[in-house]
Design a protein that fits this description.
Elements: E1 2-6, E2 9-13, H1 19-25, E3 43-48, H2 62-66, E4 69-71, E5 81-85, E6 93-104, E7 107-113, E8 123-127, E9 133-137, E10 148-153, H3 159-167, E11 173-180, E12 191-197, H4 201-213, E13 220-226, H5 235-244, E14 248-254, E15 262-264, H6 267-274, E16 281-288, H7 289-301, E17 309-314
Parallel strand pairs: 1-5, 12-13, 12-16, 13-14, 14-15, 16-17
Antiparallel strand pairs: 1-2, 3-4, 3-5, 6-7, 6-11, 7-10, 8-9, 8-11
The protein binds flavin-adenine dinucleotide (FAD) and FE2/S2 (inorganic) cluster.
Length: 329
């Protein structure tokens, strides 16, 4: 039996239970977002334990490590452990919403003024309140913009995205944590293939901008897929890039409805049939977790070396079933 000492109380963990699940089960208000070790909202500080912390400190910086910070969703203590909460100002900074625009009927663009440095394609974690946090990829580029731009897909029952849609306006202050992640442009003289579904196009668009700024000369192929043609909300912006840069090629793919310049086909099949010489490319894949997992498998079985793959999985609490229609708006 493992006992956790937290805020002057003892909590008994079930066998194999994570620290986060144990705390939530016992009614503690611990911040949490992805439960997958990505958003870092669930950080707690370990004051004493006989366990190694290493495997639950992925992405935690050196200062935080020296303070015993662990991702509680990844930590399964085997010995009695004492922990303390990490205060909001130990990990978040305050950002102000300076712009909010609907890019189509289910994607909202927000721009935040926040004093931190980032690389386009990384992500930040935003806080609705002390408990609810969600991560979003950065589209803007620090050379062009003095704000952080995020594209947020509105889900019908989405706790966070509905709040952004209905209650967040210009002037609103939001707690932000980050930046995190390494799905960013690699400065290598190789062809690039970038594949996205839904708002996965947000970091992909940012990475393409970074490649352009860095004067990337080799081919850049973008495969942008969605359920319906109207969901391809960044297609026009990408088409503008096509006209300016001869090394960029765009493939628009839809599953259910067709439109100008788009091919109605299964995206996995399309990539398998149309994209050649994978071993010579740096590949980027972004979107919901089920899509990223399946696309990774396909690409690797078609000759892609894992070392040349960068990806961002939009993990959520309950990942969507493969092929299930999204519950949008
Ligand atoms: C590293 C990272 C980067 C991310 N970047 C982005 C981004 O740039 N833009 C963006 O829109 N999202 C992004 N996400 C996803 C985002 O963090 C949230 O998971 C998402 O916005 C849903 O939050 P919510 O509170 O609105 O929905 P929740 O209340 O968490 O979920 C409501 C319901 O919708 C389901 N659900 C969750 N996500 C999806 C989905 N994509 N499609 C269909 N059903 C879903 C859930 O399983 C649940 O049943 C990213 C996630 C991670 C981990
Ligand atoms: S990292 Fe633990 S909830 Fe996201």
């Amino acid at each position: 039996m493992t006992i956790i000492h937290y805020q002057n109380l003892d909590v008994e963990l079930k066998i194999g239970e994570t620290l986060l699940d144990g705390l939530l089960r016992n009614g503690f208000d611990v911040p949490c977002g992805c439960k997958a070790g990505k958003c870092q909202s669930c950080l707690v500080s370990v004051k004493s334990t006989n366990d190694s912390l290493k495997s639950s400190q992925y992405g935690v910086n050196d200062t935080q490590k020296s303070l015993g910070y662990v991702l509680s969703c990844q930590f399964k203590p085997l010995s009695n452990t004492t922990i303390t909460p990490v205060s909001a100002n130990g990990k978040q900074i305050e950002a102000i919403v300076i712009d909010k625009v609907f890019l189509n009927d289910n994607v909202v663009r927000i721009r935040l003024k926040a004093p931190f440095e980032y690389i386009t394609g990384q992500y930040v974690t935003l806080y609705k309140n002390a408990q609810i946090a969600r991560s979003y990829s950065i589209v803007s580029h620090p050379i062009y913009h003095d704000f952080i731009e995020l594209h947020i897909r509105i889900l019908k029952n989405g706790v966070f995205s509905q709040w952004i849609k209905n209650d967040v306006w210009v002037g609103h202050k939001i707690g932000v944590q980050g930046p995190m992640g390494d799905c960013v442009y690699k400065k290598e003289n190789r062809d690039m293939l970038l594949i996205a579904t839904g708002t996965g196009i947000a970091p992909i668009y940012g990475i393409v901008q970074d490649a352009i700024i860095n004067g990337h000369k080799k081919d850049i192929q973008i495969v942008y897929a969605a359920m319906r043609y109207k969901d391809l909300y960044l297609a026009k912006d990408l088409q503008v890039l096509l006209k300016k840069y001869s090394n960029i090629k765009l493939h628009l793919i839809t599953q259910y409805s067709s439109g100008i310049g788009a091919c109605k086909q299964d995206v996995y099949q399309y990539v398998q049939e149309k994209i050649k010489n994978l071993s010579e490319k740096n590949v980027y894949v972004c979107g919901v977790d089920s899509f990223v997992k399946k696309m990774k498998k396909k690409l690797i079985s078609n000759g892609l070396n894992l070392a040349n793959l960068s990806y961002e999985s939009f993990l959520s609490f309950e990942p969507t079933d493969e092929g299930k229609k999204p519950d949008v708006k």
